[in-house]
Amino acid sequence: MNRTQNIVFLTAIFAMLSLVACRKPNNSRTTNDPYVPVNPNGQPPVNYPGSGAASATLKSLFNDLRSTPQTLTTTAGINSTVYGTKGTRITFYPNSFKDASGNIITSGTIVIKLTEMLTPGAMIAEKATTQTTTNAMLSSGGQVKIEASKDGQPVYANKYSISFKQPTASTQPMDLYFGDRNNADSIVLWRPIDTASTGGTGTTATGTTTDSTAGGGGGGTGGGGGSTPPYYVFDSCTDFNYINCDRFMSLAGPKTNIYFVMPDTSFNNYNTIVYVVYTAINSVYRPSSYSMLSNSFDLGGSYIAPVGYNINVITLCKKTNGTYYFSEQNGLTITNAMSINVTMTEKTLDYIKTRLGEL
């Protein structure tokens, strides 16, 4: 190799080394990275928490907030009705229960564990939302979680009726949704059931109905539901676990993202969670993205927030030292590219549970 060739070769090597030295760190996702960096529409990089990103403090926070399920009992093989303390009515038929092999259970005591999530505060405490698995927004008539067992073994649903108590009568149709959770600490998201799904045939309630027998147990145990409350009634529910009375909301008008800016970096996606409550439609939405650059949460690059709608913003935090923080911002009106500064205040766990119970 002559002198000229050596110079050219060394120059090329030096250029390559300079390029590597000046290159910014690789932000691509790895198997150990719980985030997916993106840069939608020129915004700063946004990091989407993966299913394993929940920290011990967030897990601990929701373990503290979750209510103890109600224990109700009924008898297999007969018509019976049980009521939740908040008025949820569940009617079982002679063929409502089946075992793990799909055999109908015709006798014996069935233990029902019921969690009612009829209000935004209850949904938040149970780490539930009114979002679908495709990120759509729902208007909720209430949610429940149902677990059934016999002699300590899980029992599965064949077909039963579930009725969601409402504060007032309504002609708004509602659909039946089942909930999905990636793991015990992830957010509950909802999927509509249909004839092709494991859940079987979906049903739609065209409006509320009243029932003068709603004040008693009717063959089961549980709280009374009032004398003549209005209900959304679904007579063919074919699954237990998370059940939702909801309606897909196709909201007209312009949409936007919303940014929720935290007071400092000690409030982050490992210990803090934000919920948006759409007051007019009983809807709860969780901003699922977090930007380390701006220390803010947002809707994940999804421009779905309807401009002009009123919202409340609830923010919860538990730090590693066991300190709880809470923020409630009410009566906000969504504007284009809205940015909300969140002010966190130290509160007791009892205060947070009480306040969520009032929402």
Please provide a written account of the structure:
It is a single chain. By secondary structure, this protein is mainly beta. The chain has helices at residues 3-22, 56-65, 120-125, 349-358; strands at 35-38, 46-49, 70-75, 80-83, 89-92, 97-98, 109-117, 128-132, 138-150, 153-157, 160-165, 174-180, 188-192, 204-205, 209-210, 230-237, 241-248, 255-256, 258-261, 272-278, 283-285, 289-291, 296-298, 305-306, 310-318, 324-333, 338-341, 345-347. Strands 3, 6, 7, 8, 9, 10, 12, 13, 14 and 17 form a 10-stranded mixed β-sheet that branches. The radius of gyration is 25 Å and the shape is globular.
In short:
The protein is mainly β and 359 residues long. 13% of the residues lie in helices and 40% in strands.
Q: In percent terms, what proportion of residues is strand? A: 35-45%
Report the principal-axis shape.
globular
Mean pLDDT: 77
The radius of gyration over CA amounts to 25 Å
Strand tally is: 28
Count of all domains: 2
Distance between the termini: 80 Å
What composes the largest sheet? 10 strands, mixed
Helix content: 10-25%
The unreliable regions are: 2-54, 195-201, 214-226
Main structural class:
mainly beta
User: Helical element count?
Assistant: 4
